[in-house]
Amino acid sequence: MRLRLLGLTLCALGLSALTGVPAGATDSHGAADPVVTNFDSQIRVERDGLLKVSETWKLSNVTGTFTRFVVTRDHLPDDIDHVQELQDLKVTAGGQEKKTEISKSGDVTSVAVADVSGATQLDFTYTVKGAVAKTLNGTEVRFAPLTGINLTVQQANIVFSTPEVTHVSCFAGAVDSNSPCSLAQMGETAGPTFQQQGLPPGNTVRMTVGFPEGEIAANSIVEYRKTLKRAFSTDTAQLLTALAVLLLGAIGLLLLYRVRGRDRVDPRRVVPASLFSLGNDTRIDFTPPSDLRPGEVGTLIDERIDPVDVTATIIDLAVRGHLTIIEQEHDSEYARPDWELRRVANAPSEELQRYENVLIRAIFGDSDSVLVSELGRQVRANLGQVQDALYDGVVKRGWFTERPDRTRSLWATIGIAVTVLGVALTIALALLTTWGLLGLAVTAVGVGLIVVGRYMPAKAPAAGRVLGQVAAIRGELLEMDVSELPSDQHAELCSRALPYAVVLGGSERWIDALVATDDDVDEDEGFPWYRGPRGWHLQYLPDSLRNLTTNLTGALFAR
After folding, report:
1. pLDDT score at 29
2. Where are the domains of the chain?
3. What mean pLDDT comes out for the span 337-360?
4. CA 292, 298, 301: angle at the middle one, nearest 5?
5. CA-to-CA distance for 418 and 416, rounded, in angstroms?
6. pTM score above 0.85
7. CATH T-level assignment (fold) for domain 35-224
8. 427 — pLDDT class (breaks 50, 70, 90)
């Protein structure tokens, strides 16, 4: 308990004050111990709550510095302290004023009087401010003039000069003791009187005198302890203000999303579209609507460039004849697989999207082939340019009014700034006031802004029809009976659809359709866009493509 710690502190203070040449100690063996033979105190309680105190200390065998203590800080519930101040202190001995030193340590104020020798009488006069506290039925003086002195007090007499009183109490012993004093009475003609016989060293005498309403003014000096509970007070004003900030912040975030972040298209809209159309001579042509590319489709759907968008683009470029993926020979069953990406010299003359050209340059540089295991740092260093080109491309198509990545970055920056401001505000308010909850509310709004910022990129109206076409294509990829495709075009059309299925879903069924083109037990070379090693069969294609996707993602995006 804190009161017990106070008692120990007082004893320690008393001992330290008497160290060196202990008060009353002598070098002669068997000399009498230093004591306070008598302590007399007259306390006049003023109407304004000030205590005018006159004390007489009769000391015996005390030599050196004499130090007495007064409890000037009382710890109450709810992190409240009542503080008392000693003012106008004067100490005399034989009519001569003595030099004193006042200091505060923890809950007590000490008064040290130097040059005390032998049998001495010290007269103290001082004023106490803050000793009168408000109660339910009036006011009370709470005062402890004898506290923790390291000498035996043989006789203590305290007399109050007061108006009408309602009750008195007095306790002696340890600071938190409930042992009554030798005498505590309300006189009919005199003020309250208190006595204590034989107070041991380190003990305390504390008194309470009660007054009816209006007799004595309360003058408590209230200070608040710095605790987490008080710093983040849940009193009505603080709690309602914090909740109001949270509510207004939530409403603001909702309005911000509805005004700036909500797509201006209906994502449930389905527009008739197909990857396949009937061409000349009953052949089936592969004709994605709006000349959509897999990388663009993935970016349009989730408004960000994912690893699957880039790997699907690489497979799409291979299928369209711009590069060839060649699986390398396996040194052993447990060897790490590898692939060679080889640029096709006589690639089709179709116009590539800018991001596709940037990706090809990032992969090959000045060479015509590269191993996936060696793509390494050069490709990752240029991947930002690929992403920039792809983001710029979807804006150029009119699907977004501004680049989604820059929109997310802007709102993330604002959210981080608000969060940092909220944290700083929380620390300041918690240290200086009881309004820490308000700072937490501002911090929560900042975190909410960071989260909402991820969804702030908004699709433009022009993206509506394209999204409807993408919905139709997804349904086709997931549900189309692949066996209906012409047998002589089966491998070609399934290969063309595969990159879109990688992005939109259903890639397994299109890979299985490619595997189904294997109608013998002989080893297979593969397709024009994918070549297997010696002894390879089409049945290995699912594992080969799965491993290829994993290794490409690692090479392109690993840090």
Report:
1. 44
2. 35-224, 263-401+458-557
3. 92
4. 100
5. 5
6. no
7. Immunoglobulin-like (2.60.40)
8. very high
